[in-house]
Amino acid sequence: MTTKVTVPGKKSLTTTLEISKAIKAYYGGVKAAKAEGKPVIWSYGLIPREIFHAMEAPVLYLEHLPMVLAAKQLSGRYMQVAEEEGLSRDVCAFHRCFAGCAVADERDPYLDNLFVPPDLIVATNLPCMSETKSFLLTADHYDCPYYFMDTPINTWGKEIPDYAIEYFSGQLRGALDFMAEFGYTVDEDKLKEAVRLSKKLVLLWEEIDECRKAVPTPMTSVDGFTACYPLVQLPGTEIGVSIYERLLEELKGKVERKEGVLDDEKLRLLWVGVPPVYNMGLLNYVEKYGAVVVKSTVEYLAGGAYDPAIMDAGRPLESLANKALVDIINPTSQNMVDFIVKSARDFRVDGIIGVVKRTCGLLPGYLRLIKDAVYEQVGVPSTIFDLDGLDIREYDDPSSKANLDSFIETLLASKRR
Amino acid sequence: MGAIDTMRGVFDNPRQIIEDWKGKGKKVVGYRCVYVPEEIIHAAGMLPYPAFGTPEPIKKADSYFQPCACEFVRNIFDLALDGKFSFLDSMVLCNTCDAIRHLHGMWKTYVDSTPCYMLNNPQKMHDESGFKFYRHELDKFKAVMEELSGNKVTDESLQKSITLYNETRRLLKELNELRNREAPPLSGSESLRISMAAMLMPKEDANPLLKQVIEEVKTRDVEDVDGPRVLITGSIIDNPTLIELVEEMGGVVVSDDLCTSTKYYWHEIKPNDDPMDALVRFHMERSVCACTHPSEDRYDYLQELIREFNVEGVIYFNIKYCHPFVYESAIFKNELEEETPLLVLEADHSLSGLGQLKTRVQAFIEML
User: Fold this and answer.
1) Spatial strand order in the sheet of A59-61
2) pLDDT digits (tens, 9 = 90+) for B175-200
3) What are phi and psi of A120, to 5 degrees?
4) Buried b vs exposed e over A72-102: b needs ≥16 C-beta within 10 Å?
5) Is the dihedral of CA A387, A388, A390, A396 positive or negative?
6) Which residues of B, range 298-337, sit inside 8 Å of A by Cβ?
7) What is the interface pTM, i.e. ipTM, of the complex?
8) pTM, rounded to two decimals
9) Which one of B66, B133, B330 has the shortest CB-CB distance to A364?
């Protein structure tokens, strides 16, 4: 039987609480732009957001709105709307939720405050197939123009060849030309500035990560889940940089004072996959064992896990193309696996919790590779279980907790030996 | 034995083809799917071999892929883990869907017997910058095939391969045209078997046989049929069971839009002095798969088939978790239904819930 015992996540940092205000302000800004008659764009996160910020264009991002709704336990309602419209329950929960928001005849007041219909759509096929097609449903519904950018998969690893960068920067240029038809032109200097700020943001995030590697860690992934907002949504902006400067300051203070999330940190865990956004308290649940989720891959949902040296403000589009192609979430698998192995090592984790969102096209093909690679290279064990981080209708609280209990008890027993 | 029986024999036991080919000391390169340019493999003196699945239950692959990954891909991987593809000297995949992308990572890591290559084909069609990118990718692929085979792929050898493969396409299409008759002399399930056999065989052998098959089919005595004319589209069907089911229920499967059939042969490679350029354009000017863009191309192509074959009902078959086609069916549904009755089916690749499908197919055929 499915039980719905959910608890919000416990945040411990002042700066992450501030980020919630920034999120609210962002959606408010999109609403205001629409009211002023500006065309609103719908897009997806792996299209480098710096281009939108450089144009000061109001954009709703497909992966963020469902997360916000899930946090309010509203996402399932809109997934159901999409299902009733004929979208299979087996397609990505993010896309189903967004499509449901788009086609719903009625929206509850909370969503109404965030939702703005699209005037144009900019889509891509990275990181998964759902990107390619799901926006077509909404483009059809709103009868609005749609631009598709082809993103090559990364078959090269960490060094992307020039011809691939040329191709994808051409796709970006095409998107800029498309948006120019709606009055959004990009000033080259602003684009360069966006790339400079984006690089600064990632460098700050790296410093933040360094603080989080401390034992005891000063920050859990519950905070990390909110703290990644600027990395994912605000690269190329001053506000993103200023939030991270404050976050870094706060964390440095905690590290100096040796102030951890837990006084007695017994286990450090890495979360792979989308956590239960409607029940982030599950990440705190492990704390009763002296365990802390120090990091989560969802913090890198759309950017951040790349070498900032590739960002050259003198070549803005090429830099952004390189960033998108080398992103760990770009298939095929090796960059993601290498990144998680490195994270497990750097964050000195004792175990990995991998959760499978049944409808995800990406993670089901990664988890076994991750599990084996992390164990072979770092000696860290993993547990993998089903958990749809967005769809509360599929959530089974006792089963999720039982999986965590048995894994952590095994880790603790192993430590005692 | 007639040519049709011979091809059926190939479909039932493709292993013999491999043994004959390997007996000559030549290599075999597996591939998945129709966006892999077989002509380059052939021009390098190797046999391109389409990796099909089986209806067998999955044994090992589910401990690697999560069960929510496409069952067809899990099936292919299961066969690979079980050594069923160990005769392949290489496996080539291309950028079509999430599951295939991940198959590459899994294969490289866990299948020791056979190296795996990923061809990075763009999914946006008709895009000149994509042509340039894809040319780089094809040049790289050609070099890999040359190294594997030890043979140089020259413009001349490639032109010859293109001519040969175009003839296969032309013959399969000619055979398919016979299904357009008021009383088709070839059933949908027979047609699928022949098409898949032709895909499996060396084309030097397949083409003369196909000519005989066409003659045999043309001269068949055919009884009048009164069932509705049906087209099947959607995810890969590499087993005639579903088509046979439709035919048993009284449907006349006059055409299809499947990668084991019409998608493989509907378009020909256009003549070009530069054969590599011909291949680039061929693969980037035909939107036969739901993974490609723009979708309108696919829709127009489907409508062309519906019109040309006087189709009265469309069955859209989606393998569970085959995201490209699951989305596409939702996108096309309303528009298709305006003109042609449509049945969307979702099932496992192994068709484990055949009883339930039967009820739905029967109701659809009766409704038509």
Assistant:
1) A59-61, A41-43, A120-124, A146-149
2) 999 999 999 999 999 999 999 999 99
3) -155, 155
4) eebbbbbbbbbeebebbbbbbbbbbbbbbbb
5) negative
6) 318, 320-321, 323-324, 326-328, 330-331, 333
7) 0.95
8) 0.95
9) B66
